[in-house]
Amino acid sequence: MEEKKGFIAEFKEFISRGSVIDLAVGVIIGTAFTAIVNSLVNDIVMPFIGYLIGGMSFESYKLTLPAIAGNEPAVIAYGAFIQAIINFLLIALVIFCVIKAINKLHKKEEKKEEAPAPSDEVKMLTEIRDLLKAQSEKK
Predict the structure, then answer these.
(1) How many C-beta atoms surround the C-beta of residue 21 within 10 A?
(2) What is the DSSP string of 13-69?
């Protein structure tokens, strides 16, 4: 009985860690984002490309291989593959732009941070330098 409590407690500790929760949130947002990109590709980009190439949908591009021994013919749906490649490229482009924008914001935040105040030793050395400079100018 003691092992189960230890295992359950350990699992509870693992699942309540921030990194696991962050990962779960990332997966959920990624799934929603994929749905948006798929809609962008399927409902906007691909019909436009199909219009430009003569009104055909990429989904209709298939290569049907002849049937062997009474089996159904094999179909190679290379149009769906092309559409998957376009989906991937659009997702990669959007992620690249988002990461680039985030990095740009981080750089601006770093620049906004003020230089740390000089230490007491540096202040003292600066005063000594200024005093020596003032003495040499008097001579």
Answers:
(1) 11
(2) HHHTSHHHHHHHHHHHHHHHHHHHHHHHIIIIIHHHHHHHTTS--GGG--EEPPPST
Work out how many domains the chain is built from and give that number: 1
Express each pLDDT in 54-113 by its tens digit.
Answer: 877 777 789 999 988 888 999 999 988 988 888 788 878 877 888 898 888 888 776 666
CATH number of the domain at 30, please.
Answer: 1.10.1200.120
- Say how far apart CA 21 and CA 13 lie, in whole Å: 12
Three-state DSSP class for 73?
coil
Q: Which two tokens stand for residue 51?
A: 């219009």
Classified as helix, coil or strand, 133 is helix
**Which residue range is the domain that position 109 belongs to?**
2-138
pTM of the shown model: 0.51
